[in-house]
Amino acid sequence: MIVSWIQNSISPSLKSSVVFVDDAKEIWQDLSDRFSQQNGPRIFQLKKDLASLLQEHDSVSIYYGKLKSLWDELSIYDPFPICTCGILKTLMDRHQRDCVLQFMMGLNESYAPIRDQIMLMVPLPHVTKVFSLIQQQERHSQLTSNVSSTQTMALAVTKPYPSSKYPPKQNPNSKKDRPYCNHCKISSHSMETCFKLGNVVAPVCSTVILLAILLRNVTN
């Protein structure tokens, strides 16, 4: 019955190679020898990914999540030894320390001040505690940045425009500074240019000139 279950569970291409085997243990061993892989290559790849992982443009939460995923998978392929002595606790403490150091090494340089403060703590906090502290710093920085942006926008709105170096143009229709004749009581000219006072020659209307020319031609 077990043989039938194994044969029905594998793909048809593999089933043909064990169809004539009646022993379940023999089938299982044959498949294990052909398809099982050592943990070494996967452990190497996981540690390589951990060594090259940086926060860069990720948030602290996303960056920590990537690290946590690699740590969890690595613990499956490379588990702690099972023992009843006190060495296991020492190994787990060292593992937590390494996780803290790895997490902080990949952070952006903007977290350098709080990172230095954490490194001075004795004993070094658990990696989850360190993650919480860094995340609080991230939120504080975002809040400060938003406040600064709002203040900058407010200043840009309230800032007066610089005065022009060119004087404003005078409106030609404005009555201010227009010449005024006290003799004629009008503002079309001044007393210095008043022909009624004899200061200038009286202007001749173009219509009068044209009429004089026509009359001269008629008399001739």
From TrEMBL:
Pfam families: Retrotrans_gag. Residues 5-107 form the Retrotransposon gag domain. This is Retrotransposon gag domain-containing protein. It comes from Juglans regia. The lineage of its organism: Eukaryota, Viridiplantae, Streptophyta, Embryophyta, Tracheophyta.
